[in-house]
Design a protein that fits this description.
The protein is mainly α. It is 57% helix and 12% strand. The protein contains four helices and three strands, in the order αβααββα.
Length: 112
């Protein structure tokens, strides 16, 4: 079975290279167009094709709250739980950084 048989989007290689390294693709990621990749995966037609294609190479696309990541097929639940906890921490960290940046700007404006 060839990749062309799956009728995959042109971003497939980029999506694989990000998620195979253990990274997440999220809807609010601005780094290198991550939100664009999220939209490609989130399309229901694409998601089903990606799932079928990546299952052949023993990867499963997992869907979180506005993010996607790979798990290995047959991966123990403890690994999945660890990945989910990591995603929660990452999301919390992003929120904290945004909040700190916002309040930092407000404080600077108070003294202007």
């Amino acid at each position: 079975m060839l990749a062309e048989d799956f009728n995959l989007p042109k971003q497939t290689h980029e999506i694989f290279s990000v998620m195979a390294r253990g990274n997440f693709i999220s809807s609010n990621g601005s780094k290198d167009g991550m939100n664009r990749l999220y939209d490609v995966i989130n399309n229901p037609d694409n998601f089903d094709r990606f799932q079928a294609y990546f299952n052949v190479i023993r990867y499963n696309i997992e869907r979180g709250n506005n993010f996607f990541y790979f798990s290995k097929l047959g991966e123990p639940n403890s690994e999945l739980e660890k990945n989910i906890e990591y995603a929660k921490l990452f999301t919390s960290w992003i929120f904290t950084q945004i909040t700190l940046s916002f309040f930092g700007i407000i404080n600077v404006l108070k003294f202007v």
